[in-house]
Amino acid sequence: MPSSLAIDGSSLTLHDVVDVARSHREVILADSARAAMQRSYAWVQKAAQDDQPVYGVNTGFGSLARVRIDPAHSSLLSLNLIRSHAAGVGAILPVPETRAMMLLRANALAKGVSGCRPLIVDTILAMLNAGVTPMVPSQGSCGSSGDLAPLAHLGLVLAEGDHGRVRVGDQELSAAEGMKRARIPRLHLEAKDGLAITNGAQLTTAIGALALHDAICLVEAAELAAAMSIEALRGASRAFNASVHQLRPYPGAIATAANLRRLMAGSALIDSLPEKLQDAYSLRCTPQVVGACRDAIRYAVQQIAVELNAATDNPLIILDEDDENKAYSAGMFHGEPVGIPLDVLKIAIAEVANLSERRLYRLTTGSLSQRLPPGLASKDRPQMGMMVPQTTAAALVSENKALGWPASMDSIPTCEDQEDHVAMSTTAARRAATVVANSRRVIAIELLGAVRALQYRLQHEPGIRLGQGTQEGVKRASSVLQNLGPDRTPSEEIEALADWVESGGHCEAISGLERLA
Amino acid sequence: MTVEITGSDLTCEDLHSVAHGSSVALSECARSRMQSNVESMPEGPSILEEKRHWLVGGFAAEMSPEELCRTFIIGHCAGVGPRLPDALVRATMVARANVLATGTTGCRPVAAEVLLDMLNAEVTPVVPSQGSVGAAGDLAPLAHIARVACGYTERPAGVRDYTPNSKEALALINGVSMTAALGAVAVVRVRRVLDAAIAAAAMTMEAVGAGAGCIDARVLEARNHPGGIEVASRLRDWLHGSTQVTPDRGANAFSIRATPAVMGTLVEELCCTETILERELNGAGDNPLLIDGEWLEGGNFHGAPIAQAIDAVKVALAQLATVSERRTFRLTYGQLSKGLPSFLVRGTGLNSGFMLTQYTAASLASECKGLAHPASVDTIPTVQHHEDHVSMGPIAARMLLEMVECVADIVGIELLLAAQALDLRSRGIAFDADGNPVHAEPVPLAPKIADLHRRIRAVIPYWEDDEVLHPCLKQAGELVRTGRILGVERPW
């Protein structure tokens, strides 16, 4: 684990998010960020007392912006915002997604344009470092104006009072008790703090960032699985020729074709059937399909990278502007810039899985598999025939299709028609994460089938050479399976390989490939 | 309570009750029917041996019958993903036992009894929820159950020793019992949400003062959709004695005026789907069947009949979700709610009141639109061209279960808001545009609306100023899920 991470609102990476969310890397607020935060805080404190209306500082929220609030009540205004916006429902979010959301909110505030004290960020980071995780319901956000409800559940823990719940280790505690045990003082909210805590699509981005990381891992595993299947099916390599792909130069396809060539290099099975001029699409078009997914993922990576370091608050306090009113009301909280790429990610990953399932079908279908045993059954472990896992893969890819409806395409007017177009980006992110999890299992099933198929080839054609990368893939994946013991079910095998892919085990196996991020 | 398993009269409600802990017993009649079915079995090679080629690729000849069964069941344990909740595993077990109890599958009574033992001893196998395409049956999930029933894991206390014969190993997994069970549990839940939604709509109508024409029996009968007629009749019942819902009030927005039309579709879909599911629960969902002493190969394992019926409920339920959300929108919208304050709280701006409840309802309604997309239109060829058209029914059923959770919360939100609105009306609390209190005449509530209001207030307080919203939403959702809003208390 790298040393502690200093956040400053402008340099957070996808890997940082994964490290903090899943591996509990320590986080601190960069000293360089404190001064700007302090300046914008001072401006808001002054504005709260002034006559000039500033949204959410001395006015109500949403359509209630028409109502002026007495400066004496600015603290209560913030607290009321948190309490009345804690409107989440459904299952509690997993800890990593919640931690990622906290980190992203802290980083957005660290930009120093939200008018809040460094203490708020310090408190969020202290919770991350102490492993105090707010219990945040996963449903109920429209992703505009930000993930209000989920972030308000974080706010219930930050703000002093008899509200909020946290998880600490295995325990579920009241926020008061959890924070006391971790010796983290809770906050007395001030003007605009309520908005600063809640106004942005950080849950969308948190779930999306983790799903994106997993998707990148998955695509790299899918290329390994594809190379192994193509090899097992005695495929032809000409479809992956570099010159061919320069003639339709999509960067993703070029990269996938290069990876396939490298993985298969030196294989005696590839191009071993000279009479076969071309393979079925699920083999031959792997660069076109997986490559298109790579290109889609690159778009998602680019969008998420912006959002990780974005100011998403409303209003933003921009002190460099000449205007006397430094508070700029805009729509930076709107989840659309991340919602659309996450819907695209979902489609892309579903296609990676669709293609994988069809290769698996060929591996398990006697008439299509260049004389592999039907169902990939073998004498030593007959019950491990692969027909039922192929059915499992079909069920998973079909579920992806049923979840394929793009969430970000929908919108329902809210807040007395003031917030009359919303992103539904949080739903997009959650669905993308489900499709990634389903698809990872599909790839795991293909790996399982390809390992069995290549083992069969090695057994029946002793001394045969596998590709440089595929050989290593077979070795590593086999050892994952061997650890399971003799009486294992296909279910256990699939889950073990899916975990292996999730942890990036396959990436360590093969070096020199074109990486996605 | 004990549910008798007859193979002929298992209802969705029975199945729901077993899911939540009722015990079960095989009826004498079913036992003897199973017994005589087995005795009618023709001489000849075991039916499972004939299937060995697609099963284990020709290695079956070298195995003992016991090994073959074990191989078959364990080889089908290929489910993945999150664990199916225990109640749904129990529902699946009783559904499968009832199929065997039809006495058409060539199974000994003991094959059903071992499943019933597990239910009575509360032995609930771990079943991964994903991996079935719903044809040839819910093979993977049922195999995870059969693995425990056949003692291939450690035999649990209270469950008899049981070794399946070849046909039984097949019959334990070869039908869409999980899809049917999940669908049946979902139907019970959807019906409960529908009942609460009609009550919520009545409360909203009372709160905003609706024109009674839209629930007039003559209007609905003139169009003659039974669902609409029923919803209108139930709304009239709730609103009996109302001074607010009267014929002289003008036409309302569609979310109020067309409530019988929109929610009536669900009444009809539910009725239709429940009938189809109950046929499946009591049907011979297996292959091959032993009828008149003859083995007959058919396609009774295919989930198509129920998959599509389940998808149809999803579409109708999405309509209920979206129309309830629109009523919630009106209740929070100062200009549309006929004198109620914005967000149903005194309009100081210092309070946001129930503003966010409508966002939550909108988010959930949008999720429902996505989940309503039909699973059963898809099919993917499986098993070497052999099972080349499948139903995807289990995916439809799981999506419906996910949807009904969303809709329970949407309806809970409407109840929560309508109760607040009725408080304001019945206490004569109103505000001018600046949030200053103004005089309003207190409005008496219709007697049954007052009952509903009381049940909500027993667990959720009236809001004068902003409070933490989440506990109220949780309670509101529970009122719907338990049926407490209608004065009953049942497991979900």
Determine Rg of chain B (CA atoms, Å): 26 Å
Largest sheet of chain B, described in full? 2 strands, parallel
Q: What would you call the shape of chain B?
A: elongated
- The percent of residues in helical segments of chain B reads 40-55%
Q: Major sheet of chain A: order of its strands? A: 4-6-7
Tell me the major beta sheet of chain A. Answer: 3 strands, antiparallel
Which radius of gyration of chain A do the C-alpha atoms yield? Answer: 26 Å
How many helical elements of chain A?
19
What structural class results from the helix and strand content of chain A?
Answer: mainly alpha
Mean pLDDT of chain B: 93
Of all chain pairs, the largest interface belongs to: A-B, 92 and 90 residues
How many β strands of chain A by DSSP?
9
Tell me which oligomeric state these chains represent: heterodimer
DSSP, total strands of chain B: 8
CA distance, first residue to last residue of chain B: 17 Å
Overall form of chain A: elongated
How much of the polypeptide of chain B forms β-strand, as a percent range?
5-15%
Layout of helices and strands:
The complex is a heterodimer of chains A (517) and B (492).
Chain A: E1 5-7, H1 14-23, E2 27-29, H2 31-49, H3 74-85, E3 89-92, H4 95-110, H5 118-130, E4 132-134, E5 137-139, H6 148-158, E6 165-168, E7 171-174, H7 175-181, H8 193-198, H9 202-232, H10 242-246, H11 251-264, H12 281-284, H13 286-308, E8 316-317, E9 327-328, H14 336-364, H15 387-402, H16 425-460, H17 468-482, H18 490-502, H19 505-509
Parallel strand pairs in A: 1-2
Antiparallel strand pairs in A: 3-5, 4-6, 6-7, 8-9
Chain B: E1 2-5, H1 12-19, E2 23-26, H2 28-39, H3 47-50, H4 52-56, H5 65-75, E3 80-83, H6 86-100, H7 109-120, E4 128-130, H8 139-149, H9 166-171, H10 177-208, H11 217-223, H12 226-238, H13 254-257, H14 259-281, E5 289-291, E6 294-296, H15 304-332, H16 355-371, H17 393-427, E7 429-431, E8 437-439, H18 447-457, H19 469-482
